[in-house]
Structure formats: C-alpha cells, structure tokens
Specification:
Shape: elongated
Number of helices: 18
Radius of gyration: 26 Å
Distance between the termini: 35 Å
Structural class: alpha/beta
Oligomer: single chain
Strand order of the largest sheet: 2-1-12-11-10-3-9-8-4-7-5-6
Length: 527
C-alpha cells in the first residue's frame, strides 16, 4: 500500500488518536513554534524522519549542533516506549537516517557555494545593508556584467566591476545613472566586512546544484540534508540571506508540478525570525510571493520560530500545517501574542485553545493539519512521537565517516576558479594600455593631451587581487583555486565558452541584451 500520510503523534482523549499529516498537503507549508526548551527541535527531527521514510528529501538547519545525531540510531529508552504505547505507535524501532552534511564554511560538511551572479543584486544589497543609492550602484554593476558577458562569480569579480565603474565613472553615470565614488567606497567597505564574516568561501564555484538536495537512497528513502549552522548563526544576516537564496533557487529552478501526491522536497527553516528582522517591505513581499508560488513546484517550507508573531501575517496565512508548542505569557505583549496564536486555529469543543497552548508540556503540542480538500483540521492537543534516530550531536568519527562516504565530496569539496569578470577586465585594461603605448610610440613629440590621459588611465588600472597562479590537481581534471595570477588569462577556453559553462543562464544569444533575472534578483534559468 502506498503511504499517504506521516505520523506525528497521538491526540484526542488519552492521546490514542493518530494525528497525521497528509503527504499530498505536505507542500502547503507549515509552522513549528514555541518557547525555548519546549521541544521544537525534536518535532522538526520527527517530521524530517517521517518525510524521509515516505521518500521525500529534506533540507534542515542544525543551529545548535544537536540535529546531527540523525546520522546515528537512537538509544532505546523506557520512557520512549511508554509514550509509543500511549499514542498507539507500537514497538519502537531505532535507526540512522540517510544524512548528507553541508557547511557554508566547509568544516563540518561539504561546502555550499553560489556565485555572486546567482545571489543577485537584491539579496546581495540586503546582506550588505546598503542604502538605496548604493543598491543602485550594485544594480548597475550587475546590468553591465550581464550586457558585456563578464561573469561575476566571486567577491574579487565584484570588486573588479566596482573598480571599473569607478575608473569610468563619467561614462557609466551618463549611461545608467549617477555613480559616485562615495557609494562605491561604501560598498567596498561592506564587502570587507562580509569577507571577515567568512563569506569568501560561500561565493564561488562549483555552485550548489539544487538537484543534489533532492536525492533518494537506492531503497527510495529521501536523503536528509543537514546544514551545520552553529558558526553561521554568529552572522545572522548571512544566514537569513543564504536561506532566502536557497528558497529562490528552488523556486526558479524547479518545474511546475501542480498538486503532487507528496512533496518533491521539504525545507525546514529554523530561527525563521532572522529572515524578517529589519527586512524592507519590498523584500518581505518577494518572500511572500515565493512562499505562495513555490508549493506548485512541489516544495514545502516549514518555518521554525519561537512565536508565530515572528512571521508576517501575509506569510503566516499560507502555513496550513501547524505545530504549536507552549508559549509563555509573562508580559502583556506575550499575552496578546498568545491570544492571536489561539485565534488562528479551528476550535475544539473539548478544550480552550489559549489555555492549551499555555499548558502543554515538553514534547506535547497543539496541532492542526490540513484535511480533505485542504481544510484546516480541528485543533488537538498532541503527544509528539519519539524519534528513531539519536537526539543530540553525533560524534566526530561518525560525521567524518558520513562525509567521506558521500558522493558529494567529489563534486564540491575542491573549489574551482574559472575565467570571469576579474580576468576579463584585467585583459581589457592590459590591451588598452598596450594600444595606448603603441599610439604613444607612433605619435610625434608633443602628442595630444587626450591620448596621454588615456594611456595613463589604462596603465593605472589594476583589478583587485590580480596576481594569481594556478596548478593542476593530479586527481581532478579541473583548475583548482590557489591564489590569483594573470597567467590564467592564457586559458584555452573562449570567453563565450567560459561564460556558458560558468553561468549557463542565457536565454538565447546575448546580442546586446541583458540576461533575465528572477523574482529575487538571481539569474533565471530557462528550460
């Protein structure tokens, strides 16, 4: 028999009635909320396990390092079996999940990278906290790069573009709008701060292929992708922007599937309030747009946060499956938030929802899942089922073993550095300098002032970080990033070929037209 639902826990009188989430509504998004220490992380772990067993790949974040235990089988406990008996689950079986570890910084999992071009001007401006004028300069840099075919893959490429705008300030201002030295300088300083937070490793290639997050085991079980986020959480804006980028990539990459029998991927977004804190209204509207439309791509997004108020109402209204752990009402604001949370549920005549949200214990929650025709179910007090995998962090030996056995290592662990904007602009400047020198040598003494200035400007231009070297890796046919060197300019790949391989975004010939960008500013991939 085909599985059509996942078991979350027991509700009703004596907690003996199964509370399930229908897989065909798993892409209608959800919310896991509750105060610190009430069991949100375990609920996320249980739901991830259940989706995985049903053949649905999962992506989740490990904020405190205690989700990595999913790579190991759980330890039998009498209390777990008693709970399983109470909710009608029967004898418990323990086992490890098929885990893939990821880490933006590459220390606790396979590196996660994207290109600056894929991030797009909107998200990049958010992570840099730019003003409107500075964001305008970033948009000009992206537009120019799109039109000229200069791929912006990493932060060095972006710096080279900003340097080019600065050196050609008058022409760029006349062509695109005001480009000021002050704005460029402010962006450069913000980039330095971003580098100090460790973002250099995040921007580059090979960029993450979203399809690698949607893999199944040979037995048909969905892989559980765990992003190690302990260090990432020290830079909340980078974390929020990364997660938003990942959502936009899923939205723009995946085809429409309508209403599938089960989700193609379930995405758990822990500490979701970081996405919305201080976000401009325009960005929240785009998040709302993605959340509204991404379900038709077969992706379910589950926000995990302390209080439902952390999520804007326009997005909260789209979260059909809800698990509400206890809320603490110590202040007047807390009491108002508690009342608002209770009012969003379909009432149950057996109990007062507001009282239940305040009283449920650890491992217990107030739940409501979508029923037939997508109607919200009646709210229930639910005892959450025990997890089958280990709670808490896995040991270092297990982590290393899982990482070593993963095929993702061969694809992502070695960074590559392709021909891109920095090298192209360096060659352009070098060519201009040589032409100016030839003209200078052929000219009569007392050459005109304009020629002298052009030669001087070309000689002065040096893109940032333009000294680079390369080496061949005996085990890999591709170039390995070490340091920057002008010697790479002799690479045999043509500019068009390199652009096609590194960007793969153009929707036809360039023919003087800019590339199309998606809803959140990243390059839109045509099919």
């Amino acid at each position: 028999m085909t599985q059509d639902s996942i078991f979350i826990g027991g509700g009703g009188e004596g907690y003996g009635v199964a509370e399930t989430l229908l897989l065909k509504y798993g892409n209608r998004h959800g919310l896991i909320a509750g105060a610190t220490g009430t069991g949100k992380t375990i609920t996320m772990q249980v739901m991830a396990e259940e989706f995985s067993r049903a053949g649905v790949p999962v992506f989740l974040t490990d904020i405190k390092g205690d989700v990595s235990g999913m790579a190991m089988p759980g330890t039998p406990r009498d209390s777990f079996q008693r709970r399983a008996d109470t909710i009608g689950l029967g004898p418990l079986s323990y086992g490890a999940m098929p885990v893939t570890f990821w880490d933006l910084f590459g220390a606790f999992g396979h590196p996660v990278r994207t290109t600056v071009a894929d991030m797009g001007p909107l998200l990049l401006s958010r992570i840099l906290e730019l003003t409107e004028a500075q964001e305008g300069v970033i948009n000009i840099a992206f537009r120019l790069a799109d039109e000229e075919g200069w791929p912006i893959l990493d932060l060095d490429d972006l710096r080279a573009m900003l340097q080019f705008l600065s050196d050609n300030q008058r022409e760029m201002s006349a062509r695109y709008g005001n480009v000021t030295t002050a704005s460029i300088g402010a962006i450069q300083r913000r980039l330095l701060v971003l580098e100090n937070q460790g973002a250099t490793q995040f921007f580059g290639e090979p960029a993450l292929d979203i399809q690698d997050l949607m893999r199944l085991t040979p037995e048909g079980q969905g892989r559980v992708n765990i992003l190690h986020a302990e260090r990432l959480m020290t830079t909340p804006r980078l974390y929020a922007t990364f997660m938003l980028w990942l959502l936009s990539e899923l939205f723009e990459d995946l085809p429409e599937v309508g209403d599938p029998d089960k989700p193609k991927l379930v995405f758990f977004f822990d500490e979701a309030h970081l996405l919305f804190n201080g976000a401009p209204r325009a960005l929240i509207e785009k998040v709302e747009q993605v959340a509204r439309l991404i379900r038709s791509k077969g992706v379910g997004v589950y926000f995990i946060t302390q209080n439902p108020d952390d999520v804007p109402d326009t997005i909260l209204s789209q979260l059909g499956n809800r698990v509400q752990h206890a809320l603490r009402a110590f202040t007047a604001r807390d009491q108002q938030a508690l009342r608002r949370a209770a009012q969003t549920y379909r009432p149950n005549p057996r109990f007062d929802t507001e009282v239940a949200i305040r009283e449920v214990g650890v491992g217990e929650a107030v739940t409501s899942f979508l029923e037939a025709k997508g109607v919200p179910g009646v709210v229930e007090r639910t005892l959450i089922r025990p997890p089958a995998s280990a709670m808490g962090p896995c040991d270092e030996a297990t982590r290393r073993q899982v990482i070593a056995a993963s095929p993702m290592g061969r694809k992502y662990d070695t960074p590559v550095d392709r021909d891109s904007a920095q090298e192209m602009l360096a060659r352009r400047a070098d060519k201009a300098a040589r032409e100016a020198q030839r003209h200078d040598e052929a000219a009569e003494p007392g050459r005109d002032t304009e020629t002298a200035e052009r030669y001087s400007r070309a000689r002065r231009y040096q893109p940032p970080g333009s000294i680079r070297t390369t080496r061949e890796d005996d085990d890999a046919p591709r170039k390995t990033r070490t340091t920057r060197s002008a010697s790479r300019s002799s690479r045999s790949d043509s500019v068009v070929d390199a652009f096609t391989k590194s960007m793969a975004r153009s929707l036809g010939t360039r023919a003087g037209s800019a590339l199309v960008r998606g809803v959140l500013g990243g390059l839109f991939r045509g099919r």
